[in-house]
Inverse folding.
């Protein structure tokens, strides 16, 4: 039986990249797999956070998961920090994680690029904690956007090293699941940069909480070149901004990019952007509405998170006892 684990950080608004690259694919997996979806608040504190805002951001992210189709009767939804075994396993895995590899991880490089003072142990350890999130459930598949592939490779390396060291087949080597046309959605202002929560310009991204006017304005202002939509995918290769809008359209419409081109080749971007706006609003508005509705009852979200943590703790706790047994560590009774 395959088991899924994935997660997102509860920092800031979720955006179209998070939705198309990850969240949209999660709901579809719940009927064929046993699914665990966590809100990665331990990862979030690798940069300074306001405690109250952090707790509320976890609720908002959980609401986004549910609004995007996670059925909490089928899937386990929980806050990472409510399951202590994640933080316990990271120590064991840290003994298998080469610093030389951690230093090369792009997320670490991005976050520390600004100052040497930001080179904190927690940031180095970020991908090892992600490995612990996955391995503590012995997950076999991890649906993520393209940018997380590197972290998954490290997870597989660490799991393999553990198995070899103790001569066991304990951890499965988890596979990334990268689905859909939009595994890497780019910024609306710069087609060579990933759409990201941390981009200073709000015009670079569509947030899941943006209303129809904001979505229309952002697509209207999105950078493009002067040429109309081309006939072939090959012609998009040198036009990153045009490519990005076609990719977003394809993912939202559940079409292949080449079919989007067949339907729109020769059109001007001004017209295409209007259609893209209508499509995005029709897909996102129900999610935004559901999120708003769910957030009116935060105690219900808290209840869901507590129930999810109970289920997650039962499995993670059992695995942690087995892991301690393999390593020769002590469990309580
Ligand atoms: P951000 O990069 O905005 O901080 P996260 O790192 O929290 O977002 O990413 C959460 C999930 O969303 C991951 O699975 C990641 O791969 C996916 N994701 C983030 N940005 C994008 C993007 N621009 N395109 C596709 N997927 C993305
Ligand atoms: N590191 C991921 C990101 O920045 C978020 C994350 C935390 C995650 N734990 C995970 C993703 C476990 C997949 C599986 O997007």
């Amino acid at each position: 039986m395959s088991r899924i684990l994935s997660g997102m950080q509860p920092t800031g608004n979720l955006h179209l990249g998070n939705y198309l690259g990850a969240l949209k694919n999660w709901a579809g997996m719940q009927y064929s797999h046993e699914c665990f979806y966590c809100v990665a608040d331990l990862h979030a504190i690798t940069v300074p956070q306001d405690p109250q805002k952090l707790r509320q951001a976890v609720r908002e992210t959980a609401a986004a998961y549910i609004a995007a189709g996670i059925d909490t009767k089928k899937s386990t939804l929980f806050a990472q920090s409510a399951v202590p075994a994640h933080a316990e396993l990271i120590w064991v895995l840290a003994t298998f994680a080469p610093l030389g590899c951690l230093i090369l991880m792009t997320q670490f490089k991005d976050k520390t690029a600004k100052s040497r003072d930001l080179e904190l142990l927690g940031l180095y350890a970020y991908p090892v904690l992600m490995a612990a999130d996955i391995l503590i459930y012995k997950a076999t598949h991890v649906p993520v956007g393209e940018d997380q592939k590197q972290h998954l490779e490290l997870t597989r390396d660490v799991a393999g090293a553990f198995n070899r060291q103790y001569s066991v087949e304990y951890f499965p080597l988890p596979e990334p699941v990268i689905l859909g046309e939009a595994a890497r959605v780019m910024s609306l202002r710069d087609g060579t940069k990933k759409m990201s929560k941390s981009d200073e310009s709000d015009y670079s991204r569509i947030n899941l909480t943006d209303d129809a006017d904001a979505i229309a304005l952002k697509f209207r202002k999105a950078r493009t070149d002067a040429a109309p939509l081309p006939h072939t995918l090959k012609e998009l290769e040198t036009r990153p901004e045009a490519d990005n809008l076609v990719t977003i359209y394809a993912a939202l419409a559940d079409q292949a990019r080449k079919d989007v081109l067949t339907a729109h080749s020769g059109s001007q971007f001004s017209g295409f952007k209007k259609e893209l706006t209508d499509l995005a609003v029709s897909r996102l508005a129900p999610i935004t509405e559901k999120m708003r509705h769910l957030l009116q009852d935060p105690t219900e979200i808290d209840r869901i998170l507590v129930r999810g943590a109970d289920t997650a703790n039962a499995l993670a706790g059992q695995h942690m006892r087995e892991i301690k047994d393999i390593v020769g560590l002590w469990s309580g009774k």
